[in-house]
Design brief:
Elements: H1 4-9, E1 22-23, E2 26-34, E3 45-51, E4 56-60, H2 61-64, H3 75-84, H4 97-110, H5 129-133, H6 135-144, E5 151-155, E6 167-171, H7 172-177, E7 184-187, E8 190-193, H8 194-201, H9 205-213, H10 218-223
Length: about 230
């Protein structure tokens, strides 16, 4: 059955007010507009926050709601990097998961023998000069932009490069859903694959893919109920 409640809710998005709430070291002061929609069509509110250290910063709803207690303006990450780079250590990240993320990113873009190279470096995807030439710059960005041990780096624009403005950290399960070979459908201001829309609307994913591949317009794809025991005809 088509999820009618979801269809109705899709037309009336709302933003929960986070003013006054505390996230780690950050206290939300007021909303500062919205981020640009990501490739899945999600648009998060931006919040002006005050850090316990006295600095101010801007964080989005998705970043603030991540389950961790070390939210800050970036001062915690800088202090952490300061400690691990003490002495003669170049970056202090050797043998860590984050360092492996960095090595994997470099390998995908520049090592032709890497199994993932054809989908990255082979397509012209590169790592920005800042990160490529300075591991510490990458670690600094990662620690101040929500990195956690259960997250993986994701490019917002799948055809764009690895760079601060085009990368974020997401659960591995989401990355599987976002692979290039999946059909991504933009509807109601949200961009998701057929499996996601099937869960939300009740229309089988196979039916959604068939309709999309056969040139149905987006509204018709989701407004036409599937016929039992037979495929839809264009």
């Amino acid at each position: 059955m088509v999820n009618q409640k979801f269809l109705e809710r899709a037309y009336s998005p709302s933003t929960k007010d986070l003013t006054g709430q505390k996230f780690g070291m950050l206290t939300v002061i007021e909303q500062h507009g919205f981020k640009k929609p990501n490739k899945r069509g999600q648009r998060y509110a931006l919040w002006y926050c005050k850090c316990d250290c006295g600095n101010y910063c801007e964080k989005s709803t998705d970043v603030l709601r991540r389950k961790r207690n070390n939210h800050s303006c970036g001062c915690l990450a800088k202090e952490h990097l300061k400690k691990i780079t003490a002495g003669n250590m170049t970056h202090g990240m050797t043998n860590t998961r984050l360092y492996n993320c960095y090595k994997g990113m470099i390998a995908r873009c520049y090592r032709e023998k890497d199994i993932h190279y054809p989908a990255y470096g082979g397509r012209g995807i590169v790592v920005c000069e800042e990160w490529k030439n300075d591991k510490k710059a990458f670690f600094d960005w990662a620690l101040s932009h929500g990195y956690q041990a259960d997250l993986t780096i994701e490019r917002i624009n799948v055809d764009g490069n690895y760079e601060p403005t085009n990368c974020t950290w997401i659960p591995m399960s989401e990355q599987y859903d976002n692979k290039r070979q999946n059909i991504m459908i933009d509807w109601m201001g949200e961009l998701h694959n057929a499996t996601y829309w099937a869960r939300k609307t009740g229309i089988p994913a196979g039916t959604i893919r068939w309709r999309y591949k056969h040139g149905w317009d987006i509204e018709r794809i989701f407004s036409t109920l599937p016929k039992p025991y037979q495929e839809d005809k264009a």
